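Hey, resending since the last one bounced:
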Amino acid sequence: MRPLVGIISNHYLINDQYPAHANGKMNTDAVAHVSGCMPLAFPGDPDAVTIDELLEVFDGFLFTGGRPNVHPEEYGEDETEAHGAFDRARDRVALPLIRAAVERGQPVLGLCRGFQEVAVAMGSTLHPEIRDLPGRMNHRMPPDGTLEEKFALRHEVRFSPEGPFTRLMGQEVVMTNTLHGQGIKQAGPRIRIDGWAPDDTPEAIWIADAQGFALAVQWHPEWNAAGDPVSRPLFGAFGDACRAWRRGRAAPLRRAG
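The structure tokens again:
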């Protein structure tokens, strides 16, 4: 049996009325066809799931993008209009789940909002709007165009020469899409920034002293994951980590520290 990857879902209204837990097909496709794992979505709702149950059921976790932002209360700041919309239920699942999975050495991959969740879970703070900062570019999704145009490669990301992303990608500079508004302001003590946009916005991170796969990227590698030379090794390595975790499930869990 393939490893089971839990993909967190967002709250969504169908036809602006019917509440649903939504997940993008490109996320499940990337996990199924590039990571080689079984994708299963779960609600980002603490009334429906518990952290302990999720850790027991799944072999790894994908924290996806989403329009709502992590609430600034989670990193000690006040809410402002610039922070946009929130999903407090997802916050209450994602942040403790990331911390628990990292402690166990269970694989974690964060994308866009998931990148911000990994950062905040490990003590980082966020800028509410990158494009408002002096010298920064607009990283948001283009307002018009087809999906292909919205997810088109738009800027370089440069990695640390000796960092895990360069080893993974086999190159120090890659091209990525960009569809985000927020970004890391102050990195937490265990967050290691390993990739930057041309305007020095952090784009790739890993967690120091994590006993398992614990990476996150600010862009959306799930788009064209099977055909993109940057996305493919990222999801491939995540799948390998999930397979390794599944093989070792019978062994005692490793603890950080």
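The longest strand covers residues 191-196.

Sorry for the duplicate.
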